[in-house]
Amino acid sequence: MQKLNQESASVVLKRRYANNDDEMEVEAAVKAATLVFKECGNNAATIKYAAKEA
């Protein structure tokens, strides 16, 4: 039973680490997009260009 609990805890931790990595990637993308919009404006042409380059 203890081994099963340890394996379960290990799986939960791996999922949490994976979720944190995903969140960091999303956060970096949002920061990059925000920077583009601040520098180039937030009109439709800028948004299309940024989306195509992503």
pLDDT below 50 for ≥5 consecutive residues: which ranges? Answer: none
- SS element count, helices: 2
How far apart the termini lie comes to 47 Å
- The radius of gyration is 19 Å
Average pLDDT confidence is 79
The run of helices and strands is: HH
Largest sheet report: none
Strand content: under 5%
* SS-derived structural category: mainly alpha
Number of domains: 1
Written account of the structure:
- The chain contains 2 helices and no strands.
- It is an all-alpha fold.
- It has one domain.
Keywords:
mainly alpha, 2 helices, 54 residues
Please summarize what this structure is.
This protein has 54 residues and is mainly α. The protein contains two helices and no strands.
How are the elements arranged and paired?
Elements: H1 2-40, H2 44-53
